[in-house]
Give the backbone structure.
Amino acid sequence: MAIRRPLLGITMGDPAGVGPEITTKALTAPEVVSSCRPMVIGDRSVMDATLTLLRSPLTLHAVAKPAECLFEPGTLECLDLANVDAATLPRAQVSAGAGRAAYAYIEKGVRLCQSREIDGMITAPVNKEALAAAGVPHSGHTEILAKLSDTKDFAMLLMGRELKVIHVTTHVALRRVPDLCTEDRVLRVIRLAQQTMKGLGVARPRIAVCGLNPHAGEDGLFGDEEKTQIIPAMEVARREGLDVYGPLPADTLFSRARGGEFDIVVAMYHDQGHVPVKTLGFTYDEARGQWTGLSGVNVTVGLPFLRVSVDHGTAFDRSWKGIANPESMLEAIDVAVRMLSARAD
């Protein structure tokens, strides 16, 4: 019996950024079309301009709903929201129009997941300034997806080749982080880490919890959040049978996780988790003036549907030049297919 290939909606992201290009490049890869049925949620004129820019061998097929997709060889399926004019689009810069369009693609993807017209969504990068200019009251994909799906219990997971990191807080000012790292929130994220790893086939994951303060607080010398919030959350998780370690100092924890001691790390804030994953996954070649490696993906854990994203931004300095690196998009599609397959099993 032939295995059903999942239908994935790929939101185009900010049309002024690299989203259309990395998506187009990824959809020419044989491993993508053999593993899934990809459909771009975006704008026909922008995707057509991208195909021309890249001299792509793909032919555009615009549709009004997923059921109209043909998925014929050499064809790029695009669910056309017709909300951008490629001829007048301000490229490689922030604009409210691009922000509105990017939000519309996300919103459409959520609705299609909820109606089960698609099996999951992949998101190309959006620009937070453009979203703000468009009046979107959320700071990024994670918060938008949670709001649109009415999800209360969610977290951001970064997956690199060597590290998996889930975050207690994400897009907030650093001065707010200590107040947000409550016992309840830390416990919920530990549980989400357990749920995620079991979904990836790890029966008893080893979960390491990072301290908030230097040296994990040094027994209260550098802050008491570990003693008052993080440790109590871990004790509850252990009573529930979870295999939890810490809180451990951030300066050594990620090396230990990379070496195989732990399966996933619970980070307290955005940069604490992002820096190690991106340091390992991103490579910049100064001589060539470009990123030669962009490994890593972002998964929103806790949603009632699957969402996987590239782990980089709109890269306006590289957009609409034909030089954007599709590595993270390829990884995002691969991770989505594997996670959907694990759920089916």
Notes: The mean pLDDT is 93. The two ends are 15 Å apart (CA to CA). The chain has two domains: 1-151+304-345, 153-302. Residues 96-114 form the longest helix (19 residues).
